[in-house]
Amino acid sequence: MPTTRVAIAGLGAIGRALARRLAVGVPGLELTGVAVRDRFKAETWMRDEGIECPILALPSLPEHVDLAVEAAPAAVLEEICRPMLLAGKKVMVLSAGALLPRPELVELARETGGQIIVPTGALLGLDAVAAAREGKIHSVHMTTRKHPRGLAGAPYLEHNAISVEGLDKAKRVFSGTAREAAAGFPANVNVAAALSLAGIGPDRTTIEIWADPEVTRNCHTIEVDADSARFTLSIENVPSENPKTGRITALSALAALRKLHAPLRVGT
Question: Which residues have a catalytic role annotated?
Answer without folding.
Answer: 220
